[in-house]
Write a structure and sequence with these properties.
This protein is an alpha+beta fold and 289 residues long. It is 39% helix and 8% strand. It has a 4-stranded antiparallel β-sheet with strand order 2-1-3-4, with helices on one face.
Length: 289
């Protein structure tokens, strides 16, 4: 590459998410699952660590495949490598159903720059905020409940979130309470008072880690817990006395003594079994005929 080419080349747009995808490309399934959940949740719950452990054991042939089978993320961030640096934006949320007291006609439109939302109690601010914490990246998820004053209100939350991609295309994404959309999870983050409290609790008053870098201490923590679980399983597993298997044929006094070897073994009696006497000589002669 010439100096002119280097000057004309656009600067690299790689982000930490691109680098994480490249780093995890050759990870084992249990490692990918750990990293993906660390990116998504920040801190893995005990149940998630158990699931990672089951995938770990299966990967090394130490246990059957988990049932039901766990889906290993194809990508860590949910986006293909090279797309994590693209910057889509939220356009609007509409067709809301089963979210607080929001009506189907309620709509929130986002400005390309700054959007301020204000209103009195019951106006719907919290309803839209709850949708965002569930569809976007957030260290906490606020529970979504239907209108408690309307018995006929839908019990299942749903909404349409429209995103504008880097090319200006409008992409409608359906929120149904369970389906996760990578376009939202990795492109938009929600930070509110509950998230701030979680950061203060996990990191301390002065703790701060840039987005994407906080996964490394969490991975180290999970790896340590997996090592503890494996060590405990090894200690708790009955260990077979392989020396006993060297005895062929019926159980004898000698094989029985070997099977019971321990700190209280009578060494004098054991030595007597090792003596070569007339019986052993006769048995050798008989076997050699």
């Amino acid at each position: 590459m010439t100096v002119q080419d280097a000057q004309a080349a656009p600067p690299s747009q790689a982000t930490v998410w691109d680098e994480l995808e490249i780093w995890a490309k050759d990870f084992s399934p249990w490692q990918k699952l750990t990293l993906a959940w660390a990116v998504r949740y920040g801190v893995l719950a005990a149940e998630q660590i158990e699931q990672v452990y089951s995938v770990f054991l299966h990967g090394f042939g130490l246990a059957d495949e988990p049932s039901p089978k766990l889906e290993i993320p194809a990508t860590i961030t949910g986006k293909a490598i090279g797309l994590a640096s693209q910057k889509p934006r939220l356009l609007r949320i509409h067709d809301v159903s089963g979210v607080n007291a929001l009506t189907p006609s309620a709509e929130l439109v986002f400005s390309p720059q700054l959007t301020l939302i204000y209103g009195g109690n019951g106006a719907g601010k919290s309803g839209f905020a709850r949708i965002l914490t569930n569809v976007c990246f957030s260290r906490t998820r606020h529970a979504i409940i239907p209108d408690i004053y309307d018995d006929t209100a839908p019990k299942k939350a749903s909404a349409i979130i429209v995103v504008v991609d880097h090319a200006g295309n409008e992409i409608p994404l359906v929120f149904d309470g369970t389906t996760e959309h990578a376009e939202l999870k990795r492109s938009f983050a929600v930070f509110d008072s509950s998230v701030a409290g979680k950061h203060l609790k996990d990191s301390g008053p002065l703790g701060f880690k840039p987005a994407g870098f906080d996964v490394f201490p969490e991975m180290a923590r999970v790896y340590g817990l997996l090592a503890q679980k494996l060590a405990a399983a090894i200690v708790g597993r009955p260990q077979q006395n392989r020396f006993v298997n060297a005895f062929i044929g019926n159980v004898t006094a000698a094989s029985g003594a070997v099977a019971e070897l321990g700190p209280k073994t009578d060494l004098a009696a054991l030595r007597k079994l090792a003596e070569y006497g007339k019986d052993e000589e006769a048995r050798v002669r008989k076997s050699s005929v």
